[in-house]
Amino acid sequence: MVKEKVTKTRNTRKPAVKQPSKHASAKRKGKKKVQKEMPAWCRYLLGVLVVVVFVSGFYAFFIRPYAYRWKPCYGLKGYGVCMPAGYQVHGIDISHYQGDIDWKRLAQTRQGRFPVQFIFMKATEGGDYADKKFVENFDSAKGHGFIRGAYHFYNPKTDADKQADFFINTVKLEPGDLPPVLDIEKKSRDVKKLQDDLKIWLRKVENHYGVKPIIYASYKFKTRYLSDSVFNSYPYWIAHYYVDSVRYQGEWKFWQHTDVGTLPGIDEKVDLNIFNGDKSELDALRIP
Q1: 255 neighbors 86 (Cβ within 8 angstroms)
Q2: What is the C-alpha separation between 20 and 18, in angstroms, rounded?
Q3: What is the domain range of residue 56?
Q4: Can you spell out the DSSP letters for 228-265?
Q5: What pTM was estimated for this model as a whole?
Q6: Per-residue pLDDT, 220
Q7: Are residues 92 and 196 located together in one domain of the fold?
Q8: Whether residue 117 is found in the same domain as residue 186
Q9: In-domain check, residue 9
């Protein structure tokens, strides 16, 4: 009889891990859920704050700056906007952004309720950019009986002498034209250097044309960056939109009061301006 050899084998399986009961698991999940949830009043308050911040930001950036457009016009309306009261001499300023202009139609505005008598045109920018429509616009303005002027858009990063020379070489002003204009809108970190450079441009251009240039700047820019008394000796053209009157306390000659004018012969929106004086005073400002 052959006896079978019985071999005992060890149990290699790991002991079963005791699984938590469904009741205990649900209890723990419930605790975690309670920890993550925010009280209802906190959620409500947070929602209200988000709405207030959004509405305030939207109003500050998109409504308030243009609120004047929707204000009732108690004066006379012209060219699609409420015109400033008490001024006789009106004008516009243009650049290549206005595209091709129908000068015959535009000339009809000289006979309307608010006759357009002067036009400033962008000539140059920085040290090497000439507006592609300047020559055509400049010649057409004179040919259709408008008093014309030219402006330079200043770039603080470009040498002031170079910018002055570029404007002088581009713009040939004649007797009867308005003085050259320095359009300064871009600020610089070094305000003192900006002021010194602007003085270089102004002196050089004044010496060439024999008249004091006009300074164009916004109300805020003028008060913040051009407070030096030297700049007050130049005729000031203020850009101040959507207000009923000029708030600037100093002397000024021109006021750009809106950038959304609509005129016959021009498809795009146009900046509208008034002169602070009568026609004889405007004539006195022109190059002799």
Answers
A1: no
A2: 6
A3: 40-70
A4: SGGGGGS-EEEE--S-SS----S--SEEEEEEEE--TT
A5: 0.78
A6: 92
A7: yes
A8: yes
A9: no
Read off the tokens for 21: 């009961």
Question: By CB neighbour count within 10 A (0-12 exposed, 13-18 middle, 19+ buried), where does 86 fall?
Answer: exposed
CB within 8 A of 118, min separation 6: which ones? 89, 91, 146, 147, 148, 149, 178, 273, 275, 282
Here the tokens at position 149 are: 């002027």
The dihedral sign for the CA sequence 166, 137, 153, 207: positive
Number of domains in the chain: 2
Render pLDDT for 102-132 as a digit per residue (tens, 0 to 9).
Answer: 999 999 999 989 999 999 999 999 999 999 9
| Per-residue pLDDT tens over the stretch 6-33 | 444 445 555 555 555 555 555 555 555 5
Distance of CA 151 to the CA centre of its chain: 17
65 and 200 share one domain: no
Let me know whether 66 and 206 are in one domain. no
Structure-token pair, residue 186: 């871009």
Same domain, 196 and 210: yes
- Active-site residue numbers? 185
- The closest of 288, 284, 283, 2 to 147, measured between CA atoms, is 283
CA distances from 85 to 29, 37, 236, 268 (A): 72, 61, 20, 25
Backbone angles phi, psi at 272, to 5 degrees: -105, 145
